[in-house]
Design goal:
By secondary structure, the protein is of the alpha/beta class. The chain has one domain: Leucine-rich repeat, LRR (right-handed beta-alpha superhelix) (Alpha-Beta Horseshoe). It contains 15 helices and 12 strands. It has a 12-stranded parallel β-sheet with strand order 1-2-3-4-5-6-7-8-9-10-11-12. β10, α13 and β11 form a beta-alpha-beta unit. The longest helix is centred in the last third of the chain and has 21 residues. The radius of gyration is 25 Å and the shape is globular. This is F-box domain-containing protein. InterPro entries: LRR_dom_sf. It comes from Tetrapyrgos nigripes.
Length: 414
């Protein structure tokens, strides 16, 4: 049977669905060899997701910088000169780009290569660079109708706020924003306008700012470097200069700005259904943390990560305050423990001091009927293997929760 009649036997919508489902597996390549009619759509799937460099999870070594720069230049040149139709610059929709870690301000010429990349149809960009050349990044962004953006960089608070304001002004379709930022001190260098003190009056004002549905802000804060309680506040309190957060469904924050949670959650909490707090650690707790949850009137999924066995009574007290507010509507609670600091951890201590406390806490809500109509349906526990416990051991310490017919217990080890 020839390829042409073979293709004609498939309705177009069935053929397209087959290609879309196999995505970039070897089957797609086989399909294009069987029937050339399938090639254009298969190519769109093969190159829809592009990562540079291919092993982006590994940071290039310092001696690889020149080689990395050469490959980036060749990539831009090859994409520009390609005669394929549609061009690769429009086929790629999801781009992951990792610049080497050891790029400092004196290497800004390296960063400017980013603006020369010919991508024009990106839907999602995951960009990582130790030193952020914002002008070049904005030049790349303005050519693409982004819906999702993830940024990883060392950047000052003023620089970040100014950059986010510019991104909001130029990306009306953006729905998801993910920030992994290590703030550094603002530089007094008068030639660097990005690091000058942030002034909202000098930033673009939008009557219809982009409406975010998902926001993740994960920062590494050093109190001597930046005022950890205030640096994020303008982003949440001035939506006309940044993003509309009134429809935010998924929110991820780090538990290091408890004094500002009433402000943050008041601004974006009413629509949030899924909330994640990273580094849920006793040194970050504050009196405003638990009461802030009163603004999360639609919360159904709560995830707490980085939980430590140290001073776990403090953790249970805060968790009790949080659950007292949200338990009536919460459907899923996920607790992720951090790897213990001690080289050797005793499972009995962890079981008695932590797992039993969780079991007693949840049992208290169940027995007193505070769960209302049993809205809490699932408890997920993620526990490091360093605690030397298997799933059966863990369930033993959670006997009451495990025996509850209305609450599903999920245990995973990592």
């Amino acid at each position: 049977m020839s390829a042409k009649p073979f293709a004609a036997t498939f309705p177009p919508e069935i053929r397209d669905e087959i290609i879309d489902r196999v995505l970039d597996t070897g089957s797609t390549k086989s399909c294009t060899l069987v029937c050339h009619d399938w090639l254009p759509r298969a190519r769109r799937n093969l190159f829809r997701n592009f990562t540079f460099p291919p092993n982006a999870q590994f940071e290039p070594r310092p001696e690889d910088l020149s080689e990395y720069k050469e490959k980036l230049e060749l990539l831009a040149e090859d994409m520009t000169s390609s005669s394929l139709s549609p061009p690769y610059s429009r086929i790629v929709r999801i781009l992951t780009l990792r610049l080497p870690t050891l790029i400092y301000p004196k290497n800004f010429a390296f960063n400017t290569l980013i603006s020369q990349l010919p991508f024009t149809n990106l839907q999602s960009l995951d960009f990582s660079s130790r030193t952020l050349h914002s002008t070049s990044l904005l030049h790349l962004l303005e050519k693409n109708p982004l819906e999702s953006l993830a940024l990883r960089s060392h950047i000052s608070s003023d620089h970040l706020l100014r950059l986010l304001s510019r991104i909001a002004a130029g990306q009306p379709s953006l729905q998801s924003l993910e920030l992994h930022i290590i703030p550094r001190p603002s530089s007094p260098d008068p030639t660097n306008t990005w690091d000058s003190p942030f002034d909202a009056s000098s930033t673009p004002l939008s009557l219809h700012p982009p409406r975010l549905q998902s926001l993740s802000v994960t920062t590494f804060i050093f109190p001597t470097v930046v005022h950890r309680e205030t640096w994020v506040e303008p982003f949440f309190t001035m939506p006309e200069h940044f993003f509309d957060l009134s429809s935010l469904c998924c929110l991820t924050l780090k538990t290091h700005v408890p004094q500002r949670y009433p402000i943050i959650l008041q601004q974006c909490g009413p629509a949030v259904t899924h909330f994640t707090l990273t580094s849920f650690y006793h040194i970050f707790f504050g009196p405003n943390l638990a009461p802030s949850f009163s603004h999360l009137t639609k919360l159904v999924d709560l995830t707490l990560t980085g939980i430590s066995e140290e001073k776990f009574s403090d953790t249970v007290a805060v968790l009790n305050g949080i659950l007292s507010i949200v338990i009536q509507r919460l459907e899923h609670l996920s607790l992720e423990f951090r790897t213990p600091r001690q080289l050797r951890s005793y499972p009995e201590l962890f079981g008695n001091n932590c797992l039993c406390e969780i079991d007693n806490l949840l049992d208290g809500f169940l027995q007193t009927g505070q769960t209302g109509r049993a809205s809490l349906k699932k408890l997920s526990l993620k526990i490091p293997t360093d605690y030397n416990m298997d799933e059966a051991d863990i369930r033993t310490y959670l006997s009451t929760t495990n025996a509850s017919g209305g609450l599903f217990l999920e245990v995973s080890l990592y």
